[in-house]
Amino acid sequence: MNRRFAAIIAGLMLVAGPALAQDGPDYLDSAKLYDAGLVKSWQMRLGVSGGQYVADVFRVDDVLYAATNDGWVYAIHAYTGAVRWLRQVTTGGYRILAPAHIGERVIFVTPAAVQQLDRFTGRALQEFSLEFPAGSAPVCDDHQVYIGGLNQRLYAFSPEYAFENWKAGVFAPITSRPQIMGDRLFMASEDGRVFALTALTRQLRRMGRVFGSVTADLVVREEGVYVASRDQALYLLDLAYLEQRWRARLSAPLFEPPVVIGDTAYQHNRVDGVAAVNTAVVDVHQRVRWTLPRGRQALTAVGADVLLLSSDGAVLVVRESTGSIRAEIAADGLNIAIPAPAENAVFLAGADGRLVCARPIGTPAVTAEQLRAALTRPALPDAAEVAEIPERPASITPPVNLAEMLVPPRGGPPLGGKSKISRSWKGAAGQPGGGESDRGADQP
Description:
Shape: globular
Number of strands: 32
Structural class: mainly beta
Strand order of the largest sheet: 1-32-31-30
Helix content: under 10%
Strand content: 35-45%
Distance between the termini: 49 Å
């Protein structure tokens, strides 16, 4: 199918969405949804065909990004189901990583390049090649884009000028997505080290460690940093010192991050299915509340129940306290889960392009006005459109606080690396770990 025609078809389905939802079959049984405390908010089918299928769906703020196996991405407003745009992001056969938002832009990273699009229209703003193989999905704050590399370095880029502000060398590849909380950047490398840095200046604040390799994305919340490790354990490290608060030993290596809902972390592994882990500091025998071998991914919580997508094609309504299955809803090929624990909403997708959203009973129905608003860019203070990103002027040097270069706490290993700003790593004056000959200066 012609891509432009597919986009038009998707748009028509959007405009006619409420009518189609009434006349066509429901993707999830409405009566069983109601018994679980939910009602269908919207459903739609994307225009995939001819060997094309939906491989992943990512939630970023109020947008769902549905990525196909051949590099196309649909941007869908999560609340209304409005399709904002369709664009091919990569043609290299790479699986698309989770994107990130920074201002009016959405950032996509492939192993070889970074592409910036207008997040409301999909218009290309800038693309630049990477001089290293990207290993992690990007994360952004208000100032920079951060990307972990397979070359054992973390990079910070200026989005306006595609300029490498700094890079920090570690001791193993970085495939776990870093996370931001306030001015702190948390990251993990495949050797089990976990780092907390000052994001703007790359100053090392703390370093912790788990006992196995870390490839799953970190989860950072007020109670600490959740680290899913291949040593079959889920860790919670405290925010201040990255010291272990607790460890939950499970039955198989962990390749995915947990979904944390309330005081429970729902962690998947191939043996236990989904394990419900008590996040409070309790006795080791009280840590794992229950396991559900059929469980594949936690979705959300409604009242006293947690909803899970099962490995055999159903939505399970499970008692949060006991793990007993209260009801199940046939999912019929909707095997892509998009967790939304903070919203009490269920988002599911299928490889055939179907997407469905269910929300708690009493949630107002989507209106035509909301659909139109979802396709309209919010007014900016100066009512200006997003401009093309200019080339970087040669005379501008990005700011950096040279007094806050990385210094390892408690005598730990240095974290550094050459960059276009500083050609050698040095510790702060009067503190240990500095010097151009330090092993952490460039090569771990």
